[in-house]
Amino acid sequence: MQNSPTSLLILSRFAGPLILAAALVASVSPALYAASSQSTTDTKSSSSSKNSTAAKKKKKTPATAAHKSGSTTARPSTVRKSGRKTTRTARSTAQTARIHQAFVASSELRPMAQQLITLRTPSAYAGVANYAHSHTGDAAGAAYLALGFAYQQDRRYSDAASALRQAKQSSDVLADYSDYLGAMNEHVSGNDSGAETLIKGFAGRYPDSIFVAASADLEANILLNLGDSAGAERALQNAGDAAHERPSFELTQAKIDSAQGREADAIAVYKHLLLHHPLSQEAEQARAKLTAAGAETSLTSAELRSLGDAYYNAGKYALAGDQYRALARNATLDANTRNGFSVAAAACDWKLKRLTDAQARALPDTNDDSGARRLYLLMELARDHQNETGQQQLVEELKQRFPQSQWLAEALFSSGNMYLLKKDYASAASYYGYLAAHFPAGKNASAAHWRAGWLNYRQGLYADAAKIFDDQIRLFPNSPDTSAALYWRGRLYEMEDRKPALAVANYKAVVRTYQHFFYAQMARQRLVVLGQVQAVSLPQLDAFQAPVIPHLDEAAPPDSPHIAKARLVANAGLNEYVSQEIAADPDSSGWSALAEAQIYASFGETFRAMRALKRAIPYAASAPIKSIPLAYWRILFPEAWWETIKTESAKNSLDPYLVASLIRQESEFNPSVVSYMNAYGLMQVEPSEGKSLARQEGVSGFQSFQLLNPEMNIRLGCRYLKQLLDRFGGVEEYALAAYNAGESRVVDWQAAGPYHGMDEFVESIPFTQTREYVQAIERNKEMYRSIDTAATAGARGEPAAQ
Q1: What is the CA radius of gyration of the chain?
Q2: Is residue 163 predicted with pLDDT exceeding 60?
Q3: HSE of 477, CA atoms in CB hemisphere, 13 A
Q4: Is 666 a catalytic residue?
Q5: pLDDT in the model for residue 590
């Protein structure tokens, strides 16, 4: 329901506990647990990764040692993607059949295992344990594997070891999981001799396992603990070149160097790790090692600043501020450099909402980039305090003193946003226009240029708006804002210039290039109104063509042992390994996302399936329906709980496609999602609103947790949507805007009219998140309808429509 105008942070009850558990185990051994959780975050890749193979062939030096390292992430490093289909051997076919047999045998385990892995409550443990005890063979093996993994997350290492042994004794299908997780369990519990027994010879026993590279790193750490640094080095060399580019491998290599007395090499690797993977857990350990060795002072100010910048860009403002303040205190640096770090630290404080005007004014007023940034911070503080005079004076000072500074560009964009929200369109357009004209290559140039044009349009300055729209189309043809510029230029051709042929040309360019965008729908409506008017040919518009859609396989191969294993792993609740197993198939490039999504969808995990395909097909909104196989569309636009949606929609006189589109936008069909605004479930109903709606529906004894029941959530959400539609005269766009941002805001936006049409109202919504929310739901509603139409036509043997 009503959310903040900024983007929602959606937290899944199914994902959150798993991430938390991963963090708990990672705190014991982050470098090793990364092999299974893939929790390492990295913002910078090694610029020298191309040299890793050559480095391995040479005697290791401090320089080459840094190039050899990487991460224990269990994604296989030797997979090659090609357009050539691998010929399945008889052994591979038999293996697939064997794994499929285990999948069928354990199919009833899936919901219990998923609950165990995510929640790990006593009842969840009891359910899976009872299943394991009452089954034998493959079904028991999968259950014991789930128990072992869960016990390990809870640091119940003895129980984990027992369960993982029973998993292997019950079934050999997932023996590589049992051995790898078992060895990791023994290692983190301090039994390295037992761990070495399990991990030794792993690659030879399981050459196709996704853990081959990770097992090499694990064994190296085990051998280090056992005092065999030479054996550790041999083990790590078996990981494969690509694996050495990851932070956990790099950390292990540094430990080996240190154990063998190569301290200079170790320090070089620790520095490389810290600077190239600054946000990883391994980087924290590397920094501690450098500090302990007294080597942190060898980092240059530029390198230290890169760390601060990495923290800042990742939103870790407290860490970044600490880094900058430490640099500002470094007496070996010149005064200007220290001043720059003081200003950077102040910027972190502003992000953390703890910078005062007095503190900002106390910063050195210099005639360099730091001085420009100081003025920018003062401008932001003036804006925060609604001090228009101060804001204007500071922007003018930036113009005079720092006409080319990025901080002037930032101040202009922020000022434009400020006056847009105040409905002072003339002032907003002025700031946006100045930014677009003086910083045409800046990060906000396209958005500012478009907003300047739109606000001129809103003020009735149609000639000025038309010129800006034309320039937008010419200067920023690949910007997402250009679909709007094309459409509104067409509207001006139609309404003001009385040139319908040019209007049609613009509308057709929108439809051709942005198949399912909101403005493509608006353009189609205008084309219907204009009837038989023929478009003129304009080179600038003819250049806008539909994007080339890459080939997508319609189905995954049924004989892939890795797909079969991914399904089996999912039965055990180990979702994080599903994509890795699929990626291990050398032919998976054309169907990997579909295979992963179909696995999740087969278990009713609609939201996981949709996310897998949204990541893989970000261009879907521009693709003709017929250009992507129907199997993909059905996952991208699911109809889960469709009967309930239809029933409640009919009861409330709603379009079921509208309700499905709203659910897709609010929760991605995750019934257990809870937002940071405390909105629950599929349609994101807040508990207070839910209680009122339940009373209206005659539901007695309503409790907030019932909003996590899909049927109840849809029932109450549909009633609320109907009330909003009634409140706003049945106009969907008003109701959707109110659903997202609140009724009072919509009333305020309505009062900012008049609007010549609903398209003007939607584009005039000042909150980007709400504007895009309304456009997306209206777009997706029609996509749902088109997909169903295509499916019906396909069932009848008719060609699918565009």
Answers
A1: 30
A2: yes
A3: 12
A4: yes
A5: 85
